[in-house]
Amino acid sequence: MFLAADGSAAELGLNTFSFPTTTLFGAGALGELPERSRELGISRPLIVTDPGLVETEAFAALTKTLGGAEQGRGWFVYSGVHPNPIESDVREAAAAFREHKCDGLIAIGGGSPLDVGKAARLLLKRPKLEFSNFYDESDWSGLAPFIAIPTTAGTGSEVGRSSVITLDTTRRKAVLFHPELMAKLAILDPELSIGLPAKLTAATGADALTHCIESYTCPVFHPMCDGIALEGIRLIVEALPSAYRNGRDVEARGKMLVAAAMGAVAFQKDLGVVHSMAHPLSTICGLHHGLANALCLVSGMKFCAARKPGLYRRIGTACGLEVIKASDVEADRQTIRFISGLLAGLGLNTRLREHGVKAEQLNALVAQATEDPCHKTNAVPVTEEDFRKLYEEVL
Ligand SMILES: [Fe+2]
Protein backbone atom coordinates (compact mmCIF):
# COMPACT_ATOMS: atom_id res chain seq x y z
CA MET A 1 0.00 0.00 0.00
CA PHE A 2 1.23 3.50 -0.80
CA LEU A 3 1.09 6.05 1.97
CA ALA A 4 0.87 9.81 1.86
CA ALA A 5 3.29 11.78 4.06
CA ASP A 6 0.80 11.79 6.92
CA GLY A 7 0.67 7.98 6.92
CA SER A 8 -2.82 7.70 5.44
CA ALA A 9 -3.50 5.49 2.44
CA ALA A 10 -2.94 7.54 -0.70
CA GLU A 11 -5.14 7.62 -3.77
CA LEU A 12 -2.73 6.34 -6.34
CA GLY A 13 -4.28 6.90 -9.73
CA LEU A 14 -1.97 8.69 -12.12
CA ASN A 15 0.34 11.42 -10.86
CA THR A 16 2.47 13.97 -12.67
CA PHE A 17 5.72 14.97 -10.98
CA SER A 18 7.17 18.07 -12.60
CA PHE A 19 10.15 20.22 -11.51
CA PRO A 20 11.21 21.91 -14.72
CA THR A 21 12.34 25.49 -13.99
CA THR A 22 16.02 26.14 -14.71
CA THR A 23 17.28 27.99 -11.65
CA LEU A 24 20.49 29.94 -11.38
CA PHE A 25 21.43 30.42 -7.74
CA GLY A 26 24.18 32.28 -5.93
CA ALA A 27 25.51 35.66 -4.82
CA GLY A 28 26.25 37.60 -7.99
CA ALA A 29 24.04 35.37 -10.17
CA LEU A 30 22.47 38.54 -11.61
CA GLY A 31 25.72 39.15 -13.52
CA GLU A 32 24.82 36.22 -15.76
CA LEU A 33 21.63 37.93 -16.92
CA PRO A 34 22.90 39.44 -20.22
CA GLU A 35 24.36 36.15 -21.44
CA ARG A 36 21.41 34.07 -20.25
CA SER A 37 19.01 36.53 -21.92
CA ARG A 38 20.84 36.16 -25.23
CA GLU A 39 20.70 32.38 -24.93
CA LEU A 40 16.93 32.66 -24.56
CA GLY A 41 16.67 34.94 -27.61
CA ILE A 42 16.02 38.12 -25.60
CA SER A 43 17.79 41.20 -26.96
CA ARG A 44 15.17 43.92 -26.22
CA PRO A 45 13.69 43.01 -22.82
CA LEU A 46 10.78 44.67 -21.06
CA ILE A 47 11.54 44.89 -17.33
CA VAL A 48 8.36 44.44 -15.27
CA THR A 49 8.38 45.70 -11.70
CA ASP A 50 6.59 47.91 -9.15
CA PRO A 51 7.14 51.58 -8.27
CA GLY A 52 8.74 50.77 -4.88
CA LEU A 53 11.34 48.49 -6.37
CA VAL A 54 12.57 51.08 -8.87
CA GLU A 55 14.03 53.01 -5.91
CA THR A 56 15.98 50.06 -4.48
CA GLU A 57 19.58 48.87 -4.67
CA ALA A 58 18.30 45.70 -6.32
CA PHE A 59 16.91 47.67 -9.26
CA ALA A 60 20.11 49.74 -9.50
CA ALA A 61 22.05 46.46 -9.68
CA LEU A 62 19.79 45.28 -12.50
CA THR A 63 20.18 48.45 -14.57
CA LYS A 64 23.96 48.34 -14.05
CA THR A 65 24.01 44.76 -15.28
CA LEU A 66 21.97 45.71 -18.34
CA GLY A 67 24.39 48.52 -19.18
CA GLY A 68 23.25 51.79 -17.63
CA ALA A 69 20.43 54.15 -18.49
CA GLU A 70 17.31 52.88 -20.17
CA GLN A 71 17.29 55.09 -23.29
CA GLY A 72 19.15 53.80 -26.24
CA ARG A 73 20.28 50.63 -24.48
CA GLY A 74 17.63 48.35 -25.88
CA TRP A 75 15.72 47.65 -22.66
CA PHE A 76 12.56 49.21 -21.30
CA VAL A 77 10.69 49.36 -18.01
CA TYR A 78 7.07 48.93 -16.99
CA SER A 79 6.90 49.75 -13.26
CA GLY A 80 3.17 50.19 -12.62
CA VAL A 81 2.43 46.87 -10.89
CA HIS A 82 0.10 47.16 -7.85
CA PRO A 83 0.77 45.22 -4.59
CA ASN A 84 -2.15 42.91 -5.45
CA PRO A 85 -1.88 43.01 -9.26
CA ILE A 86 -4.90 44.06 -11.30
CA GLU A 87 -5.87 43.35 -14.88
CA SER A 88 -4.83 46.80 -16.12
CA ASP A 89 -1.26 46.14 -14.88
CA VAL A 90 -1.11 43.17 -17.22
CA ARG A 91 -2.67 45.09 -20.13
CA GLU A 92 -0.28 48.04 -19.63
CA ALA A 93 2.75 45.75 -19.48
CA ALA A 94 1.67 44.04 -22.73
CA ALA A 95 1.12 47.47 -24.38
CA ALA A 96 4.60 48.63 -23.31
CA PHE A 97 6.07 45.43 -24.76
CA ARG A 98 4.41 46.06 -28.11
CA GLU A 99 5.21 49.78 -28.14
CA HIS A 100 8.92 49.18 -27.63
CA LYS A 101 9.01 46.12 -29.91
CA CYS A 102 10.46 43.99 -27.11
CA ASP A 103 11.27 40.32 -27.55
CA GLY A 104 11.18 39.02 -23.97
CA LEU A 105 10.26 39.90 -20.37
CA ILE A 106 12.31 40.11 -17.21
CA ALA A 107 10.25 40.52 -14.03
CA ILE A 108 12.01 41.62 -10.85
CA GLY A 109 10.50 42.02 -7.37
CA GLY A 110 8.07 40.15 -5.16
CA GLY A 111 5.29 37.86 -6.35
CA SER A 112 3.22 40.67 -7.91
CA PRO A 113 5.60 41.81 -10.69
CA LEU A 114 6.45 38.18 -11.37
CA ASP A 115 2.76 37.32 -11.81
CA VAL A 116 2.20 40.31 -14.10
CA GLY A 117 5.26 39.43 -16.18
CA LYS A 118 3.98 35.90 -16.64
CA ALA A 119 0.45 36.92 -17.60
CA ALA A 120 1.36 39.80 -19.97
CA ARG A 121 2.67 37.19 -22.41
CA LEU A 122 -0.85 35.79 -22.76
CA LEU A 123 -2.03 39.10 -24.22
CA LEU A 124 0.89 39.19 -26.64
CA LYS A 125 -0.26 35.88 -28.08
CA ARG A 126 -3.98 36.70 -27.94
CA PRO A 127 -4.48 40.50 -27.72
CA LYS A 128 -8.28 40.14 -27.47
CA LEU A 129 -8.14 37.66 -24.57
CA GLU A 130 -10.66 38.15 -21.77
CA PHE A 131 -9.07 36.65 -18.67
CA SER A 132 -12.45 35.35 -17.51
CA ASN A 133 -12.35 33.10 -20.62
CA PHE A 134 -8.74 32.04 -20.08
CA TYR A 135 -9.59 28.37 -19.67
CA ASP A 136 -11.47 28.29 -22.99
CA GLU A 137 -8.08 28.43 -24.74
CA SER A 138 -5.76 25.47 -24.48
CA ASP A 139 -2.89 26.33 -26.83
CA TRP A 140 -0.50 28.64 -25.00
CA SER A 141 2.62 27.46 -26.79
CA GLY A 142 5.19 29.95 -28.07
CA LEU A 143 4.77 32.61 -25.37
CA ALA A 144 7.47 35.29 -25.22
CA PRO A 145 10.52 34.16 -23.19
CA PHE A 146 10.37 35.16 -19.53
CA ILE A 147 13.02 35.45 -16.81
CA ALA A 148 11.97 35.80 -13.14
CA ILE A 149 14.19 37.50 -10.56
CA PRO A 150 12.68 37.44 -7.04
CA THR A 151 13.81 40.00 -4.45
CA THR A 152 11.68 38.51 -1.67
CA ALA A 153 11.78 34.99 -0.27
CA GLY A 154 8.13 34.06 0.09
CA THR A 155 5.70 33.32 -2.72
CA GLY A 156 8.07 31.33 -4.91
CA SER A 157 6.22 32.66 -7.96
CA GLU A 158 9.47 32.34 -9.93
CA VAL A 159 9.00 28.57 -10.11
CA GLY A 160 5.20 28.52 -10.19
CA ARG A 161 2.95 27.94 -13.17
CA SER A 162 0.16 30.29 -12.17
CA SER A 163 -0.48 33.99 -12.05
CA VAL A 164 -2.99 35.58 -9.66
CA ILE A 165 -4.66 38.69 -11.05
CA THR A 166 -7.68 40.67 -9.81
CA LEU A 167 -10.13 40.98 -12.70
CA ASP A 168 -11.68 44.34 -13.63
CA THR A 169 -15.16 42.90 -14.07
CA THR A 170 -15.55 40.75 -10.95
CA ARG A 171 -13.02 42.46 -8.60
CA ARG A 172 -12.08 38.95 -7.53
CA LYS A 173 -8.75 37.23 -7.83
CA ALA A 174 -8.47 34.89 -10.80
CA VAL A 175 -5.87 32.15 -10.86
CA LEU A 176 -4.48 31.73 -14.38
CA PHE A 177 -2.81 28.35 -14.39
CA HIS A 178 -0.89 26.85 -17.29
CA PRO A 179 2.54 25.17 -17.53
CA GLU A 180 3.47 27.51 -20.40
CA LEU A 181 3.29 30.44 -17.94
CA MET A 182 6.43 29.22 -16.19
CA ALA A 183 9.64 31.21 -16.37
CA LYS A 184 12.33 29.92 -18.72
CA LEU A 185 14.86 30.89 -16.06
CA ALA A 186 14.71 31.91 -12.38
CA ILE A 187 17.67 33.88 -11.05
CA LEU A 188 18.02 33.60 -7.26
CA ASP A 189 20.64 36.12 -6.21
CA PRO A 190 20.70 36.69 -2.42
CA GLU A 191 22.43 40.04 -2.85
CA LEU A 192 19.16 41.35 -4.32
CA SER A 193 17.19 40.62 -1.15
CA ILE A 194 19.57 42.20 1.41
CA GLY A 195 17.65 45.48 1.29
CA LEU A 196 14.33 43.84 2.22
CA PRO A 197 13.11 45.36 5.55
CA ALA A 198 13.02 43.04 8.60
CA LYS A 199 9.21 43.08 8.87
CA LEU A 200 8.82 42.00 5.22
CA THR A 201 11.60 39.44 5.62
CA ALA A 202 9.62 37.91 8.50
CA ALA A 203 6.23 38.01 6.78
CA THR A 204 7.39 36.64 3.42
CA GLY A 205 9.46 33.99 5.21
CA ALA A 206 6.37 32.95 7.18
CA ASP A 207 4.53 32.50 3.86
CA ALA A 208 7.29 30.17 2.62
CA LEU A 209 7.19 28.26 5.93
CA THR A 210 3.40 27.87 5.67
CA HIS A 211 3.75 26.59 2.08
CA CYS A 212 6.15 23.90 3.26
CA ILE A 213 4.08 22.87 6.30
CA GLU A 214 0.73 22.83 4.50
CA SER A 215 1.99 21.08 1.39
CA TYR A 216 3.79 18.41 3.44
CA THR A 217 0.67 17.63 5.50
CA CYS A 218 -1.74 17.72 2.55
CA PRO A 219 -2.85 14.11 1.99
CA VAL A 220 -1.81 13.71 -1.65
CA PHE A 221 0.68 11.08 -2.83
CA HIS A 222 3.75 13.07 -3.83
CA PRO A 223 6.89 11.86 -2.02
CA MET A 224 9.14 14.15 -4.10
CA CYS A 225 7.29 17.26 -2.95
CA ASP A 226 7.24 15.88 0.61
CA GLY A 227 11.03 15.64 0.66
CA ILE A 228 11.38 19.14 -0.77
CA ALA A 229 8.93 20.56 1.80
CA LEU A 230 10.81 19.03 4.75
CA GLU A 231 14.17 20.32 3.56
CA GLY A 232 12.56 23.72 2.94
CA ILE A 233 11.41 23.76 6.58
CA ARG A 234 14.91 22.87 7.78
CA LEU A 235 16.41 25.73 5.75
CA ILE A 236 13.81 28.24 6.95
CA VAL A 237 14.26 27.30 10.61
CA GLU A 238 18.01 27.72 10.18
CA ALA A 239 18.05 30.90 8.09
CA LEU A 240 14.95 33.01 8.73
CA PRO A 241 15.90 34.24 12.24
CA SER A 242 19.35 35.27 10.93
CA ALA A 243 17.95 37.00 7.82
CA TYR A 244 15.46 38.82 10.09
CA ARG A 245 18.10 39.98 12.59
CA ASN A 246 20.76 40.83 10.03
CA GLY A 247 19.43 41.61 6.57
CA ARG A 248 22.96 41.66 5.15
CA ASP A 249 23.58 38.01 6.00
CA VAL A 250 23.96 36.82 2.40
CA GLU A 251 24.13 33.14 3.35
CA ALA A 252 20.84 33.34 5.27
CA ARG A 253 19.27 35.35 2.44
CA GLY A 254 20.38 32.70 -0.04
CA LYS A 255 18.95 29.84 2.02
CA MET A 256 15.66 31.70 2.29
CA LEU A 257 15.47 32.30 -1.48
CA VAL A 258 15.99 28.60 -2.15
CA ALA A 259 13.57 27.59 0.60
CA ALA A 260 10.87 29.88 -0.82
CA ALA A 261 11.29 28.33 -4.26
CA MET A 262 11.14 24.89 -2.63
CA GLY A 263 7.92 25.81 -0.82
CA ALA A 264 6.34 26.81 -4.13
CA VAL A 265 7.51 23.62 -5.83
CA ALA A 266 6.09 21.61 -2.91
CA PHE A 267 2.69 23.25 -3.03
CA GLN A 268 1.94 21.88 -6.46
CA LYS A 269 0.63 19.15 -4.05
CA ASP A 270 -1.70 21.80 -2.63
CA LEU A 271 -2.24 23.80 0.55
CA GLY A 272 -4.66 23.79 3.51
CA VAL A 273 -6.73 25.54 6.15
CA VAL A 274 -4.20 28.29 6.96
CA HIS A 275 -4.16 29.61 3.39
CA SER A 276 -7.96 29.52 3.30
CA MET A 277 -7.98 31.71 6.43
CA ALA A 278 -5.27 34.01 5.05
CA HIS A 279 -6.83 34.79 1.64
CA PRO A 280 -9.92 36.63 2.99
CA LEU A 281 -7.75 38.47 5.53
CA SER A 282 -5.99 40.04 2.52
CA THR A 283 -9.02 40.69 0.31
CA ILE A 284 -11.38 41.91 3.08
CA CYS A 285 -8.97 43.42 5.64
CA GLY A 286 -5.94 44.25 3.49
CA LEU A 287 -3.44 42.19 5.50
CA HIS A 288 -0.15 41.23 3.88
CA HIS A 289 -0.45 37.61 2.71
CA GLY A 290 2.58 36.38 4.66
CA LEU A 291 1.50 38.17 7.84
CA ALA A 292 -2.00 36.69 7.52
CA ASN A 293 -0.53 33.19 7.26
CA ALA A 294 1.78 33.78 10.20
CA LEU A 295 -1.07 34.92 12.46
CA CYS A 296 -3.20 31.87 11.60
CA LEU A 297 -0.51 29.17 11.36
CA VAL A 298 -0.32 28.00 14.98
CA SER A 299 -4.09 27.74 15.52
CA GLY A 300 -4.42 25.96 12.15
CA MET A 301 -1.76 23.45 13.23
CA LYS A 302 -3.43 22.87 16.63
CA PHE A 303 -6.75 22.30 14.86
CA CYS A 304 -5.25 19.67 12.51
CA ALA A 305 -3.17 17.96 15.22
CA ALA A 306 -6.22 17.51 17.47
CA ARG A 307 -7.94 15.57 14.68
CA LYS A 308 -4.91 13.74 13.28
CA PRO A 309 -2.40 13.14 16.10
CA GLY A 310 1.20 12.71 14.97
CA LEU A 311 0.67 14.83 11.84
CA TYR A 312 3.62 17.09 12.65
CA ARG A 313 6.18 14.55 13.89
CA ARG A 314 8.43 14.68 10.82
CA ILE A 315 8.06 18.45 10.61
CA GLY A 316 9.33 18.50 14.21
CA THR A 317 12.31 16.41 13.13
CA ALA A 318 12.98 18.84 10.25
CA CYS A 319 12.96 21.62 12.88
CA GLY A 320 15.70 19.73 14.76
CA LEU A 321 13.48 18.39 17.54
CA GLU A 322 13.96 14.91 19.09
CA VAL A 323 10.42 13.73 18.52
CA ILE A 324 10.88 10.49 16.58
CA LYS A 325 10.07 8.34 19.63
CA ALA A 326 7.67 10.74 21.34
CA SER A 327 3.96 9.93 21.52
CA ASP A 328 1.86 11.39 18.70
CA VAL A 329 0.40 14.04 20.99
CA GLU A 330 3.78 14.97 22.43
CA ALA A 331 5.43 15.17 18.99
CA ASP A 332 2.74 17.56 17.78
CA ARG A 333 2.84 19.60 20.99
CA GLN A 334 6.61 20.13 20.80
CA THR A 335 6.53 20.92 17.07
CA ILE A 336 3.72 23.46 17.39
CA ARG A 337 5.40 25.06 20.40
CA PHE A 338 8.61 25.36 18.37
CA ILE A 339 6.86 26.99 15.38
CA SER A 340 5.02 29.34 17.76
CA GLY A 341 8.37 30.35 19.33
CA LEU A 342 9.95 30.83 15.90
CA LEU A 343 7.16 33.19 14.82
CA ALA A 344 7.30 35.08 18.14
CA GLY A 345 11.04 35.63 17.59
CA LEU A 346 10.14 37.28 14.26
CA GLY A 347 7.61 39.62 15.87
CA LEU A 348 4.75 37.60 14.35
CA ASN A 349 2.94 36.68 17.57
CA THR A 350 0.37 39.46 17.37
CA ARG A 351 -3.40 39.10 17.07
CA LEU A 352 -5.63 39.99 14.13
CA ARG A 353 -7.26 42.91 15.98
CA GLU A 354 -3.82 44.53 16.34
CA HIS A 355 -3.78 44.72 12.53
CA GLY A 356 -7.17 46.35 12.25
CA VAL A 357 -9.37 43.27 11.85
CA LYS A 358 -12.77 43.84 13.48
CA ALA A 359 -15.19 41.36 15.06
CA GLU A 360 -17.87 42.70 12.66
CA GLN A 361 -15.82 41.33 9.76
CA LEU A 362 -15.95 37.75 11.06
CA ASN A 363 -19.03 36.69 9.09
CA ALA A 364 -17.53 37.82 5.79
CA LEU A 365 -14.17 36.22 6.62
CA VAL A 366 -15.80 32.90 7.52
CA ALA A 367 -17.93 32.92 4.35
CA GLN A 368 -14.95 33.58 2.05
CA ALA A 369 -12.66 31.12 3.85
CA THR A 370 -15.29 28.39 3.49
CA GLU A 371 -15.51 29.14 -0.26
CA ASP A 372 -11.71 29.17 -0.67
CA PRO A 373 -10.45 26.01 -2.42
CA CYS A 374 -7.22 25.53 -0.40
CA HIS A 375 -8.84 23.79 2.57
CA LYS A 376 -10.32 21.11 0.33
CA THR A 377 -6.88 19.49 0.46
CA ASN A 378 -6.27 20.17 4.15
CA ALA A 379 -5.04 17.28 6.30
CA VAL A 380 -8.52 17.08 7.88
CA PRO A 381 -11.94 18.43 6.78
CA VAL A 382 -12.81 22.01 7.82
CA THR A 383 -16.39 23.26 8.29
CA GLU A 384 -17.79 26.78 8.35
CA GLU A 385 -18.16 26.52 12.13
CA ASP A 386 -14.50 25.44 12.41
CA PHE A 387 -13.43 28.57 10.48
CA ARG A 388 -15.45 30.75 12.87
CA LYS A 389 -13.75 29.21 15.92
CA LEU A 390 -10.32 29.43 14.30
CA TYR A 391 -10.73 33.13 13.49
CA GLU A 392 -12.12 33.82 16.99
CA GLU A 393 -9.04 32.16 18.47
CA VAL A 394 -6.65 34.53 16.72
CA LEU A 395 -8.81 37.68 16.72
FE1 LIG B 1 1.12 31.69 0.35
Q: Please report the total strand number as a whole number.
A: 8
How does the major sheet shape up?
6 strands, parallel
Q: Judging from the principal axes of the Cα atoms, what is the shape?
A: globular
**Structure ligands:** fe (ii) ion
Strand ordering within the main sheet = 1-8-5-4-2-3
- Helix count from the secondary structure assignment: 14
Overview of the molecule:
- The protein has 14 helices and eight strands.
- It is of the alpha/beta class and 395 residues long.
- The protein is globular and about 65 Å long.
- The site of fe (ii) ion has 5 residues, from helix 6 and helix 10.
Task: Provide a compact summary of the structure.
This protein has about 400 residues and is α/β, with parallel strands linked by helices. The chain is built from 14 helices and eight strands. The strands form two sheets. It has a six-stranded parallel sheet, with helices on both faces. A two-stranded antiparallel sheet has the order 6-7.
